[in-house]
Structures are given as structure tokens and as C-alpha cells.
Hints:
Layout: E1 4-5, E2 11-12, E3 18-22, H1 29-32, E4 38-44, H2 45-58, E5 63-69, H3 79-86, E6 94-99, H4 101-114, E7 118-122, E8 134-139, E9 142-147, E10 153-157, H5 158-161, H6 166-177, H7 179-193, H8 199-214, H9 224-244, H10 253-268
Parallel strand pairs: 3-10, 4-5, 4-6, 6-7, 7-10
Antiparallel strand pairs: 1-2, 8-9
Amino acid sequence: LEGVSCDCGKFHTCDIQYVYIDSGAIDRLTDICKDFSSILIVADENTFGAAGEKTIEALENKNITKVIFTGKEILVPNEMAIAEVEKNLEGAELIIGIGSGVIQDLCKYVSFKNKIPYMVVATAPSMDGYASATSSMTRDGLKISLPSKCADVIIGDLDVLCQAPAKMMASGLGDMLAKYVSICEWRIANLITGEYYCEDIAQLVREALKKCADNAEGLLKQDKEAVKAVFEGLVIGGVAMAYAGVSRPASGVEHYFSHVWDMRGLEFGTKVDLH
Length: 275
């Protein structure tokens, strides 16, 4: 995370300060947040139910404001959701998001826009946005990627992650398996057009991907090593994008299909599946 000089000629850096993936990792917030007094927590009813109380217990003697979205319908990271978070920002020194994809995208963008530090307590190993510096947002009914920032700290408490719905675990594995496509596309682009490509970054993703594939059978059994492999791989995917300065190492044409389906869902009011 502190950066590495690479044979490709670049010095790869990532803005994340700490990543903790372990049982009881939420307890680390006590020490990590010792210099903050006013904290804004953002979650929905489901994600707060998964990790909210543990998070608040770790934030002892803090002035805490909460924005809890309903968990009964899918939260859309749009202008209204942004406004709901921002109207509660006054006095906040730190944002802590409790959740996965949408909560993460929303908090990253608000943090970037308002220049406030941001940490995430992950509730599912479901997507690779935890460590990426872009947010998948909805603006005027269109699904777009906006510049944001990496979380300063990523907390992956295995006691929480292992309780995530099976479908969200499968989503995370699917996001990792899609990197077979993105790495291949990146290499092809390099061969055909001379686009920048780094084999060390590609290999970093391949190794994380292999670990996920090797442990896949244990995922739906809530095996901690399998869950850890997927969550770690998803974080590494985000770090790889930061290293490369582009989304190529972890995002290919399959992500465009996903965004098209999301936009069709918004246009026609139909249900869409997980990113």
C-alpha cells in the first residue's frame, strides 16, 4: 500500500492507509479512530443490522450521527441519496460506511467531494469497489462512474462477512472470475494498440484470482478461508486499478453489460441483478 517501484517503469501507489481482514477486525476502530470525536455513520437497515452495533461499541465516547437508509427497497446512489448524506455532514470529522456496493459508492463520492476522511466496515464480499477510486453512481437515470477516492481504511471482519447472504458471496466470486476477461482484454489491447500494460499488476490479480478459485467450494459453507480469499481478492482488484491508474486490471466489457442492464432497469422499472 505504501507503493512499489515496478519493472514497467512506474511507481505504483495506492491511497489506502490500512486494510484489516480478520475475525474481530471491527474492534480495531477503537484505536484507528482515537483522534476523531465526531463521526457520521452511513448504512441501510440491513447493513446496520449486520455490523452497526459492533461498530458503535468500538467507537466508544464518540459523538455519532447516523444516516440509515431503508433496507426494504434497493438504494440508488443518486442525487437524492447524496443530498441525504450531505445534509448530516455538519461537524463530522470522519465518515464510516457500513455496507458493501451502494453504500460504499455513495460514501466514497461524498468523502471525495467534501474532503472528509472515509473508512468502510464491509458487510459482504460482494464487489471490488472497496479499494477503487471511482464510484458507480446514477445521474439523470444514467449509470456513470465518477471520480471519488479510496477508503482510507478498509475493515473486513470475517465474523460479519461470513454471515453475508449466499447470493452476495456468489456475486463477489463472480466479480473475481470476471477478471479472467479483464486481464485478457488488457493484454490484447496492449498487443493491438500499444496501450499501457503491466505484467506485475496482471500477475497480482491472477494470484488473487487463483486463491479465490481454489477455495470456491468453501464459500457457500461460510468457510472463513474461502470468504477471506474472495474479500482479499476484491480488495487487491481495487489496489490493482489504483496501481495501473485505469480500471483495466479488474474491469472489462462484462462491466459495460452490467451497466447497460442497470440503466434498462431504471428506464423500464424492472428488477436488475447484482453488479
